[in-house]
Design a protein that fits this description.
- 38% of the residues lie in helices and 19% in strands.
- The protein is an alpha/beta fold.
- The chain folds into 2 domains: 3-128, 3-Layer(aba) Sandwich (Rossmann fold); 190-390, Methylesterase CheB, C-terminal domain (Rossmann fold), CATH 3.40.50.180.
- The protein has a 7-stranded parallel beta sheet with strand order 8-10-7-6-13-14-15, sandwiched between helices. A 5-stranded parallel beta sheet has the order 2-1-3-4-5, with helices on both faces. It has a 3-stranded antiparallel beta sheet with strand order 9-12-11.
- Helix 8 (207-217) links the parallel strand 6 (198-203) and strand 7 (225-230).
Length: 391
């Protein structure tokens, strides 16, 4: 029997969540604060933990960090639809939580609508997540870059992928050797990229940390227009965009209806709105937010964005399907490939949840299947190679 630890300081919430899971055959144990959760996780084995954010004695962020250090267990955060709740939840995802579910506007309303179905679906996905795949994605460490520069007495023009801003959104870095760093930087600087590339990235469960790593390492010299569709509610996507802006050399913001973006700009699809590209001209993409019905049960939909890009943009396009549950993204990957673009998906070994990449691969329209740490280099290789082919 699957064992779940339900952590919340509200008896009402523990009952609602516990009953929903018990109805699906879970064995449920309760804890009323983070301190109890840490102690329970050390004494007993659980298949999944649902974790409230704001609790007395010890909050969900600290509890998540301690559990992942001492007794790693898949964790689903259950948080409020507030700016504070969004910040805390994103902090918890940085510290090892797999995914989150937002409480819909007050405790009592969790019994209404489809929230119980969403809860069970999320818990089942988190339970099956590969925790090893949630390890930080390697990056180039700025201290080592400085050492490499001073070692040979030359000053290099370091790309954004080498920088690691000091922020709570930064992923813990791998520390490569000076030789590795020198070769990585020189290779990325030396490349010549195609003009006006567009990258469309789609992700769900386990995606925020990986999206952060990709934007952290994407060199500004590529001068791409980047659209990110991360399954998140609207109260979270704005805060997510702000955090990404802090770690990227690109200008990152939440998408706005009617705006136009050019090279070096990243837009995060707004939660609860589909993102489309109705027009494209002279390297500038116009964005449109559409309040249509969910696709595959989600809004924003990866498919909607990718299909729109495939129909509208005639310059180089790369579609990227990352970790997550469900089939959203498969039709979009097919559309981009059939329109002459390139397609990349994350491999199974580094995907916390392999649903989205698996469905994309099964279309037969995927050019490359890459581990998390090679995704950026894969993108740069594709866009450099296109330039060589075109030239």
């Amino acid at each position: 029997m699957t064992r779940a630890l339900v952590v919340d300081d509200s008896q009402f919430m523990r009952t609602v969540v516990g009953n929903a899971l018990e109805d699906q055959g879970f064995e449920v144990v309760e804890a009323s604060n983070g301190k109890q959760a840490v102690e329970s996780a050390e004494k007993e084995e659980f298949d999944v933990i649902t974790m409230d954010v704001a609790m007395p004695k010890m909050g969900g962020i600290e509890a998540t960090e301690r559990i992942m250090e001492r007794s790693p267990t898949p964790i689903l955060m259950v948080s409020a639809h507030t700016e504070v709740g969004a910040d805390a939840t994103l902090d918890a995802l940085e510290r090892g939580a797999v995914d989150f579910l937002a409480k819909p506007g007050g405790e009592a309303s969790i019994e209404a609508g489809t929230i119980k179905d969403d809860l069970v679906e999320k818990v089942e996905a988190v339970t099956s997540a590969d925790l090893d795949a949630l390890e930080p994605v390697p990056t180039v460490n700025q201290a080592e870059v400085d050492a490499a520069e001073s070692g040979d007495g030359e000053t290099m023009s370091v790309s954004a992928s080498a920088a690691e801003p000091e922020t709570d959104a930064t992923v813990d870095p791998h520390t490569p050797s000076v030789g590795e760093i020198s070769s990585v930087i020189e290779e990325k600087i030396a490349r010549e990229y195609v003009e006006n590339p567009t990258i469309v990235v789609g992700a769900s469960t386990g995606g925020p940390k990986l999206v952060s790593a990709i934007l952290r390492d994407l060199p500004r010299a590529l001068d791409a227009r980047v659209l990110v569709i991360q399954h998140m509610p609207k109260s979270f996507t704005g805060r997510f965009a702000e955090r990404l802006d802090a770690v990227s050399a690109y200008s990152v913001a939440e998408a706005e209806d009617g705006e136009r973006i050019g090279g070096g700009e990243v837009r995060i699809a707004r939660g609860d709105s589909h993102l489309e590209v109705p027009s494209y001209s002279s390297g500038r993409v116009r964005l449109q937010l559409v309040d249509d019905e969910p696709v595959h049960g989600v809004k924003p939909s990866i498919d909607v964005a990718m299909q729109s890009v495939a129909e509208t943009i005639d310059d180089p396009v790369v579609g990227v399907a990352l970790t997550g549950m469900g089939e959203d993204g498969a039709a979009g990957i097919r559309a981009i490939k059939e329109a002459g673009g390139h397609t990349v998906v994350q491999d199974e070994e580094t995907s916390p949840v392999f649903g989205i990449p698996k469905q994309a691969i099964e279309t037969g329209c995927v050019d490359e299947v890459l581990p998390a740490e090679r995704l950026v280099d894969g993108l740069l290789s594709i866009l450099s190679r296109e330039g060589d082919d075109d030239g």
